[in-house]
Amino acid sequence: MLKNYIKIAIRNIRRNKIYSMISVFGLAIGITGASLLYLYVNDELSYDRFHEKSDYIYRIVEISDNADQGIRYFGQTAPVLGATLKETYPEIQDMVRVYRPVGHIDMLWKGERIHERNYLLADPGFFRMFDFKFLMGDEENALAEPNSVIITKRIADQLFGDENPIGKDLPLNNITPVTVTGVVKNVPDNSHLQFDYVISRENTAINWDQYLNDWSEYGAYTYLLLDPSTNVQQFKDKLDTFIQNKQEENSDARNFYLQSLSDIYFNSADIEFGIEQSHGNLFYITIFSAIAVFLLLIAGINYMNLATALSARRGREIGIRKAAGAEKKQLVLQFLSESVVIALLACLISYFLIELSLPFFNELTGKEFLLNGDTAGTILALLLAIGLSLGILSGSYPAFYLALIRPIRVLKSKTELKGGNLVLRKVLVVTQFALSVVLIIGTLGIYKQMNYIQSADLGYDSEHMLVVDINHGNVRSRFKAMKQELERIPGVVLAATSSRVPGEQRSIEQVYSRSIESSSQDSVQAYFMSFDEDMVNQYDLEFVEGSNFTGNKGVDSLTVLINEAAAEALNMDEPVGNYLDLSGADDPIKIAGVLDDFHFQSMHHEIAPLIIGYWANPIRVIDYFSIKLAGNNMQATIESIKEVHEQFDPETAMEYRFLDQQIDQKYRAEIRAGQMFGIGGGVTIFIACMGLFGLAMLTTETRIREIGIRKVLGATVSDILRLLTKDFVKLVFIAFLIAIPVGWAVMNSWLNNFAYRTELGFGVFVAAGVTALLLSVLTISWQAVRAAFTNPVESLRSE
C-alpha cells in the first residue's frame, strides 16, 4: 500500500512540475536556512556542555557590596576560599583553581622568538574536572609534577611537528622551563576556558605558600564539583552561614555566590575580571531561533497554499476515488505521503545547499562548522527530522481538506472550491509577508544603528592610529628613548604612551575618588588611565577647562585630568585646582584639567567618569604606544617600527593593531546580527514570492476565460493587471500593518542594548513595506502581464 502511495505521489509531482518545483525548492531553501541557524543556536547553547560533569560544576563569584562602591561582582576569588570550602563540606567532591596571569610567556624556540598570551596555570585536578580530550599523556596525573605543561595539538604541531613532544622541555623565559606531559585536542570554541598551554600551578619560580593562605589575596578562578546527590539550594544556604562565620573570624573574607558552569557564557556580562573571553547574548539566540522557525513556517505555508489551491485539479480524482470506495483514511495517507515525498526531496537538495553554504556561513558567524564524516550523520538526521515533521505538518491541512470533499460536488463541477479554503490561503499569505516585513524592518533598523555608530563623533581621532603593546620592563623604563626613535621614522607623525587607549578592548582599571573639600560625599567609582603628556594631543582630545600635563614628572605625578562625567559625578562646579582623595594613592591628587567627554568605551555604555593620571602615577603603569601614521607607505612604516621595537625589546615579538579595527570588533555581534537579519529577510521574502508566483499562476489559470471575456468587452491591459493584482496587494498591505508593531517591539528591545542609539523613524517601516509590496507586485505582474496579452480567442477556447 505504501509503495502505491509513493508511486502516485511521484506521478502527481511530475504532472504538476512547476508547482512541485516551487514547493520543493521553497522547502529546500527554508530547511537549509533553518538548519544553518540551528547549528549556530545549538553551538551557542552548548557552551561548556561537553564536560561530562557540567551539571555539577560551579564557579565561585565574589561580591563586593558597600555604600560607597555599590555592588560589584568578580570572577576572581581568594585562593584560600576554595580550599577551605573543600575541607569544610563533604558535598564538594573536588575543587580546582585556575589562574590567568597578566601578560604573556616568552621563549626562544629553534631560533624563533615566540610569545603566547593564551595560557593558564592550574591545580593538578584541572583535567579531572574538565573533559578536554587527551591525545598523548596520562590524563589523571598530567599536572601532578611541578613545572609540567599540557599543550594543545596546535602548539604541538607548531613546535614539534611529527616529533613526540612528551618529556620535551620548553624554555619559558618569564616563568621557568617546563616539561611537556600531555597533548590535548584544540580547545572547542564553545568553551569559556580557552588555552594553548596549561602549566602546573606548582611552579618552582613562584612562591605560593603565603598567597594560597591569605584571605586578602585575589586572582584565582575557583571551580567546585558537587556530588550529584547534593541539594544545591540547601548547600547554598549552608554557604551563607559559612561566609558570615568566616567574616567574623577574618574581616578580609568576602561574600560570594555559586554560578553554574552552563550559566557562565550567557550571564557573566556584569562580572568583572572573568576568565571568559566572550559572552553570549540570549536575545540573539531568541531572534535567530525565531528566524529559523519563520523560514520553516513560510516554506510550509507555501506548500499548504499551493496544495489547497490545486484542489480544483484534484477534485475529480478525489471524487472518482471516493465513488470507487476509497475511505477517508486512505485519502489522507495518500496526500500526506505526497507531502512527505516533497519534503524529503527538499531535504536531499538542502543537504547539498548546506555544503555549499557552510564556508560563507562560517565566515558570517565566526564559527567553524564542518560537513565531514563525523558531522554528516548528524546533519542528515537533523534534515530527516525536519523533513518528516515539516512534511506531515504542512501536508495535514491539504490532506484532511481534500479528503473531506464530497464526490457529487466535484464530479458535477470543475470550479475551484472556496469558503474556508480561500480564507485560509489569504491568512497564510498575510502570515508569510508579515514575517518577511518584520525581518526587513530588523535589517534596516540594525543597519541604521550601525551607520549611526560608525558616523558618530567619538570625541577623539582614531584614523591611522597604530597601537603597540609594551610587553617588557625594559621598554617601560626607557619608553621616552623609544618614543624618540619611533618619531624619527618617516611616516610616523607622533608617538605617545598610556596604560589604556580610547576604544580599549581590555578591562580598564577602576578607582574610587572623593573630593577632599566634600568629605561627606560618597566615593565616586571611575575608570582610570595613565597618559604621558603627548596623549591628549595625539587623540585630539578637547579641554573644557584647565591644562594638560607639563612633562615635569615631579609635578605631574601628583595631578590628574578628569572628564566632564567625572566632574559631574564629583559634584564639582569648578574642579580645576581642587584635590581628590584617590584609592591607590597615598597623597591628595590635584585636578589639572577637565576634558570634554569622549567615548573611551563602546557606545553600548554611557560615558562614565574617567580619571587620567600621569604615566608616573602610583596606580597603573603604561602598557601601550599610540603611534599616529601619516597614511602612506604604511607597511614599510610598520616594518621600521618593528626594527625599533627589536632594539628595545629583543625578547618578544611586536604585538600591534589598528585602533579603527579594534573599535569595530566591539560591534562584531551587532554587525553579524544585522547580516543574518538581512539574509534571513531576503530568504523569507524570496520564498514568499515563490509561493505568490505559484498562486498567481493558479489564479490566472482559473480566471483565464473571465480574462478573455473582459478583453472582448474592451478591458485594457492595465484593467487586467489591476484585476489580477489588487487582491494580492491588499493582503501584502494587511501584512505590513500587522508587521509594524511586531517589528517596532523587536527593534526597540534590541536598541535598548545601546546607551547611544538612533531612532527607528517612520522611514524604516515605509521602506520595509514598500520593499515587500514592490517585490510582490513584480512577482504577480509577470503572470498578470502574460495573461493580459494572451489572445482572447485562445483564452475562451481553454478548458
Structural features:
799 residues, alpha+beta, 12-stranded mixed sheet, 25 helices, globular
Characterization of the model:
This protein is α+β, with helices and mostly antiparallel strands and 799 residues long. It folds into four domains: 1-47 and 294-417, no CATH class; 57-272, no CATH class; 419-456 and 664-799, no CATH class; 465-663, no CATH class. The protein is 50% helix and 17% strand. It is built from 25 helices and 25 strands. Strands 1, 2, 3, 6, 7, 8, 9, 10, 11, 12, 13 and 14 form a twelve-stranded mixed sheet that branches. Strands 17-18-23-20-22-21 form a six-stranded mixed beta barrel. The chain has a four-stranded antiparallel sheet with strand order 16-24-15-25. Strand 21 and strand 22 form a beta hairpin. Helix 2 (17-45) packs across helix 10 (328-365). The chain is globular. The protein starts with a helix and ends with a helix.
